[in-house]
Design goal:
The complex is a heterodimer of chains A (114) and B (111). By secondary structure, chain A is mainly beta. Chain A is built from no helices and 11 strands. Chain A has strands at 4-7, 10-13, 19-25, 31-38, 42-51, 54-57, 64-66, 76-78, 87-94, 104-105, 109-113. In chain A, the strands form 2 sheets. In chain A, strands 2, 4, 5, 6, 9, 10 and 11 form a 7-stranded mixed beta sheet that branches. A 4-stranded antiparallel beta sheet of chain A has the order 1-3-8-7, with no helix packed on it. In chain B, the strands form 2 sheets. In chain B, strands 2, 4, 5, 9, 10 and 11 form a 6-stranded mixed beta sheet that branches. In chain B, strands 1-3-8-7-6 form a 5-stranded antiparallel beta sheet, with no helix packed on it. The chains are: A mainly beta (114), B mainly beta (111). The A-B interface holds A 4, 6, 33, 35, 40-43, 45, 48, 56, 58, 90, 92, 100-108, 110 and B 8, 30-31, 33, 35, 40-45, 48, 88, 90, 92, 96-99, 101-104.
């Protein structure tokens, strides 16, 4: 079945450590996105990529980095520079073969900084 | 910039109708969406409406769009306990072609 897979589902990290969240999709979608979700804050866009080897900062990119070396993969690194990294992270993708523009989401990764 | 607003909480009794409201600012919106998020999970698309439509019905779901007032609503008929979730309104039409999400409305259904 086609879909988006995020891993790990739960992750714990000590302060000062970098951590990388994985996002893989087999939907053949061009565009991929990373969102951060905090209680009462809704979804905030961290980074997005419209095509391989290209990506843009979203609204809250500071302290995060991404790469897009393959169409299927869009990993997010939460660096030690991110002041408050504990959150629920959601990856999404969007194709262009349908013009409705809907996003397809993974199941999320919950990061807790100890 | 573009903004999407929704109330944060709604509580209803099982069997009643639920109405979740949303307002948006982007006048160039082409599609508007409703997503559902269950605890600890990702978002699932419930339904969407094209901006030249006033209403869309899909089984228990009715979406109403008032483009003049930039107001979108989602009505869930015969609300069940399984409908308890967070519902997000989203607008596709931002300057960079990204979806803009509201903060989500947490629907609680009491038996």
């Amino acid at each position: 079945d086609g879909g988006i897979t995020q891993s790990p589902k739960y992750l714990f990290r000590k302060e000062g450590q970098n951590v990388t969240l994985s996002c893989e999709q087999n939907l053949n979608h061009d565009a991929m996105y990373w969102y951060r979700q905090d209680p009462g804050q809704g979804l905030r866009l961290i980074y997005y990529s419209q095509i391989v080897n290209d990506f843009q900062k979203g609204d809250i990119a500071e302290g995060y980095s991404v790469s897009r070396e393959k169409k299927e993969s869009f990993p997010l690194t939460v660096t030690s520079a991110q002041k408050n990294p504990t959150a629920f992270y959601l990856c999404a993708s969007r194709g262009h073969h349908k013009n409705t523009g809907e996003l397809f989401f993974g199941e999320g990764s919950r990061l807790t900084v100890l | 910039g573009e903004d999407v607003e929704q109330s944060l909480f709604l509580s209803v009794r099982e069997g009643d109708s639920s109405v979740i409201n949303c307002t948006y600012t982007d006048s160039s919106s082409t599609y508007l969406y409703w997503y559902k998020q269950e605890p600890g999970a990702g978002l699932q698309l419930l339904t969407y409406i094209f901006s030249n439509m006033d209403m869309k019905q899909d089984q228990r779901l009715t979406v109403l769009l008032n483009k003049k007032d930039k107001h979108l609503s989602l009505r869930i008929a015969d609300t069940q306990t399984g409908d308890s979730a967070i519902y997000f309104c989203a607008d596709f039409g931002g300057s960079q072609g990204n979806l803009i999400f509201g903060k989500g409305t947490k629907l609680s259904v009491k038996p």
